[in-house]
Amino acid sequence: MRAVHIISWIARVALMVTLVLGLLFWIAQMSLISLHILFGLLGVLSLLVLGMVAVFTRGLRLLGVGSIAYALIVLAFGLTQDMILEGNLYWLTQAAHLLVGIGAMAVALVIDKRYRHLKLASLEEKREGKLKIA
Ligand code: HEM
Fold it and tell me: What is the pTM for the complete model shown?
């Protein structure tokens, strides 16, 4: 339970730093893209690990598959974004890239919450089972 919480925390912090670096690039034209990509990759990797843990946890399998697919979409979007909709419509690509990135933070948080909820419920069940036997 603690490991999932820490990985989710790493994912969210890395994605938040990625967001700030992206906004600095966008608004202030500061060229921090390599750092942005590095933190983005760390966030995506952490989300992939969370997705895999969820896939192997009964009750979270669907969320796990969705998270892995989502992490791959964030990655694909990031790596190809300067090739999608160039010219006047490029702002659409930028906005979508930003929203997909923010969504990744939400997915990392949801996995953490659901995993904790599931584990606490199963601990409670076990405790009740022991009380009945006694
Ligand atoms: C592995 C993941 C990621 C990669 C490879 C990546 C890559 C990039 C690249 C190459 C740019 C510059 C595009 C340009 O030249 O206009 C960029 C910009 C930006 N990124 Fe990311 N990114 C990633 C993840 C994220 C995430 C997770 C967020 C938000 C939480 C985000 C938010 C932004 C923002 C706000 C910008 C500036 C606006 C724009 O040009 O789209 N990125 N990113």
Answer: 0.90
